[in-house]
Amino acid sequence: MWQAKWNSMKLRNPETNKTWRISVEGNHITTQLENRTPKTIEVKYADEKAVQLIMAQLRKGFIYSNPDAAIWEPCFHTYLNRIYPGFLPIAANRNDFYVFRVAGQFEDEVIFHFDSSGKYLNSYHLGKDRLTYRAKLLDDGRIVLNSTYSSYNRMIIELFYPNGEKIEEIQEGELLDTFKNTDDHADTFDDFKISYIGYDDPYNRGIFKVEDMKSNTLVLEFFNEFISKNAFCAFSSNKLIVHTDNGVLSLYNIP
What we know:
There is one protein chain. By secondary structure, the protein is mainly beta. It has one helix at residues 46-59; strands spanning 8-12, 19-25, 28-33, 39-42, 64-65, 74-79, 90-92, 96-103, 108-115, 120-127, 130-137, 143-149, 156-161, 166-169, 186-189, 192-200, 205-212, 217-224, 231-235, 239-244, 248-253. The protein is 5% helix and 50% strand. The strands form 5 sheets. A 5-stranded antiparallel β-sheet has the order 5-6-21-20-19. The chain has a 4-stranded antiparallel β-sheet with strand order 1-2-3-4, covered by helices on one side. The two termini are 17 Å apart.
């Protein structure tokens, strides 16, 4: 997101249709809500302060949407909720995808359903005292979950049916091996591999690496500022999905 050419961003609130703009020039940050008078402040660390201001607007319901963003550039940001940040599963293998969030102190586990453009479609509440570590979307629309409950001392494999909002434990069958050798912080698409490689202190940004597996070369590294320490990433059929512990869902255009 914050690459050298970045200097401005416009957010929109889909409920009110209001817009909010921010631009950075040196140590000066200018913000403007709708057509009101722009406000400019001077700060020591402009990029860090700008991220804080953007996060505040995302939490208010504003979104960033730029379908025409360049390849590997963000085309969408939205805020989900405050969660226990240990695990951030993504289930995707087609034009829509699901992300899993734990609300509060394990008060509920919520599945958010989006289409490939980031449009919110639905949410499902799985209940309290549970945590999903990994998730995979099957071709028939069902979702395999690698989960645990506070009352269990073991990991279990579950099958969730979004259409019927039904969940059941898998006792036997090939789906029990769904998550063998799974890397939660990496995914592949065609000849590309994306990996979350860590958190960059003191710049407060998550670093991602894109590799061309065919030639075994590094394509690029890019940053997402909406990460405090951890993130999961996955490909849908036409987007890269980044799910962050700070509560932001980001989409990137891919080749």
